[in-house]
Amino acid sequence: METVRIGSIDLGVFPLLLAPMEDVSDPPFRLVCKQYGADMMYTEFISSEGLIRDAVKSKQKLDIFEYERPIGIQLFGSDIDSMREAAIIAAQAQPDLIDINYGCPVKNVACKGAGAALLQDIPKMVAMTSEIVKCTTLPVTVKTRLGWDDNTKNIEEVAERLQDIGIQALTIHGRTRAQLYKGPAVWELIGKVKNNPRIKIPIFGNGDVDSPEKAIEMQRTFGVDGVMIGRASIGYPWIFNEIKHFMRTGKHLAPPTIADRVKVCRTHLNASIEWKGPVLGIIEMRRHYTNYFKGIPHFKDYRMQLVTLNQFEAVSAVLDEIEQVLGNTELHLTLNN
After folding, report:
1. pLDDT of residue 111
2. I need a surface site. Which of 137, 253, 315, 334 has the fewest CB within 10 A?
3. Cα separation, 43 vs 19, whole angstroms
């Protein structure tokens, strides 16, 4: 099989991409995903208006690090001139590519004419994309959905028109905006786009890829060039290496142990503190603990401590106890089975 390329970026065979997720895919989270097999990653989506106004939160999202490469900066907005200007600002952060968000379904984005809202105005989407392609030497890619609703599944037209004005890859989430994240993702239309003889750019599938089997189905049944993984990676960066191992050997990797979970959680915590400082780094890490220990018996009491403690030493001590106490319980259960 040929390797997948976006411009001069070689992503290897069937790359696994980490989705841009608001309040999730910041540099500390991207660090652990990169360590566990993500081939390409994106920043959280960044408001074009925020960048132009020099808003602190938007500017901070431009932070990228050498170990993350290749990495894309994702932008969203409703005004063509603002998006062009934001792309110029984003390019100064020296990402490997610029990605445009035409897929975000949430109200405070779509109801302002950005994200998935552009699926209702294809000429404007094409004009906006064209301006961004022209204003940067970086590859420009797009992430979008099947359409606005079941009556307007226009992704086949969108793919052709965006390719024609110069985007170099397209990621398609297998739901409409109306579905939000409900119901199963529909991959058949993604496959139709990929297998359209006019389409020459890489097509990545997104939506419900939460196991090695689903990733392989995306590849073998629908022919996509790679998959983008979002929610399945939250608290579980092992998903990337698990998919790669299964595709290579046909066998499943052993699931992470309690010790593995504590190790990665601690790496994430340390990176969060290093990037955001000792106060905010600890506070913002709280949203991740439940995901790292999802399904683990007797975790509830430890969770209450982790989401209320404010000192690194105290949090670290709780993680030590989780590893020791719950790890011993895990070992006991394993031996008895």
Report:
1. 64
2. 137
3. 8
